[in-house]
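Quick one: structure tokens for this chain, please?
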Amino acid sequence: MDMFYAASTSGFYDPSIHQRIPPDAVEITHAEYEALYAGVASGFDIEIDSMGRPVLVAPQPLPVEDLRAAASAQLPAWEAAERTASIEHAGRRWLTTPEALQDIRDALLAGLVPGGVWIDAAREPVPMTLAELQALWAACVTRGAAIYQRRLMMEAEIAAMDAGQLVTFAPNWPA
């Protein structure tokens, strides 16, 4: 049994299943349906030709400004992930979540390391002096500054990219 395609809904209709078929639907063979369906799955679009028949067409490229906006929209999530990924310092891994950074700030403002121990990312207690905690804080600040500088660099790179580069853009650190 043949199928139908309706441009108004961009949908396929099987009369053995669908009771209502849009009035603009055109009848297509099962082979045409399979070819159209496979084409859409491969990234092609369906348009109606001059004879009113559905045909596969290559998708229209997005305007460069839309691609630029999409690339830029990836940066906040990248930055947030980098800021909470933890850091390596003094041979250990340390949390850099907002809560962990606030704990370090609080201890530094108080001028003490409670019990002379700090907890690393593996939840292991580590003997620590105030000077060592200050060094950890300095490493966190340095890492945060590097992340911010990289984001600024990527913003500038995005502004100068062409459409091909924007399509493949993914936030990252330089190799």
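Residues 64-168 form one domain.
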